[in-house]
Amino acid sequence: MTRRGLRTARRRLGQVGFAALLVVIVLYTVFPFYWAIVSSLKSGSDLFRADLLPAHPRWSNYAQVFQQQPFAHNIANSAIVALATVAISLALALCAAFALGRHRFAGRRVLLLAVLSVSMFPQVAVLSGMFELLRALGLYNTLAGLVLSYMILTLPFTIWVLTTFMRQVPRELEEAAVMDGARPMQVLLRVFLPVLAPALVTTGLLAFIASWNEFLFALTFTLDSARTVPVAISQISGGSEHELPWGVIMAASVVVTVPLILLVLVFQRRIVSGLTAGAVKG
DSSP H helical segments within the chain, as ranges? Predict the structure, then answer.
């Protein structure tokens, strides 16, 4: 075999290996959700059979999710809390990132490290303090209380990420706007906001996922009327104390996961742009 043929064979072998690796990664990431869908269509002893397709699909599991408890109300609660948390987090983080990323002042690095250190604390460490704060403010068992508590999870992350992106925006854009007489808020909204749109979508989606899936704060700070979907799923029960309707639980999990998948599919281009923008300086 000639050198050219050998190089061609190696290239094809590398392509085959890369394709096989992609198939393994896709199966590893997609199969759990596929198995959740399959399990949501089973009931009884069928749940313990390793069938790739259910022999007798039980679509009534999805109807029971909404019939046995106010699941639609719980979804609405989660959507309101997650959207409000994302909106407030991005608004505050954008202003903080503008100050931390574009202006020099004493203690800036210490402040950034303090913001990052807040996200290192586990939720249990701040649970009792947050509980007392919400009670003192009269926000216990309210959606506003959940939004306030979720800010501890989302705000440090969004500030840190947006500050990194803000630093990489060319300074010439800001200087040109200042020369035209733009004020700081106008520079932020008319110059940086359009440039940082992919980063905002990426961080906003991650903050939305964190708020949508949060369980501990929602379980501790809410009762029946303000429960979100993770708490509602955990409290699905069957007719017997020792028998849980796993098919209904898996159906509820699929219903809750679908909106996140749709969001990722809708904003996938923005997400990729936001993830790759940090690797290239303007």
Answer: 3-40, 60-67, 71-102, 108-118, 123-137, 143-167, 171-179, 184-187, 193-195, 197-213, 216-221, 229-234, 246-266, 268-277
Q: Could you tell me if 116 and 156 are in contact, meaning their C-beta atoms sit under 8 angstroms apart?
A: yes
Q: Give the whole-angstrom CA distance, residue 33 versus residue 37.
A: 6
CA distance 207 to 157: 8
DSSP single-letter state for residue 169? S
Bridge partners of 243, per DSSP, are 240
What range does the domain containing 44 cover? 3-48
Query: Taking a C-beta distance cutoff of 8 angstroms, is the pair 226, 146 a contact?
Result: yes
Q: Are residues 105 and 179 in the same domain?
A: yes
What 3-state DSSP class applies to 183?
coil
Residues paired with 240 in a beta bridge: 243
Q: Radius of gyration of the chain from Cα atoms? A: 24
pLDDT digits (tens, 9 = 90+) for 123-174: 888 899 999 999 999 999 999 999 999 999 899 989 988 888 888 888 887 7
* 105 in the same domain as 12: no
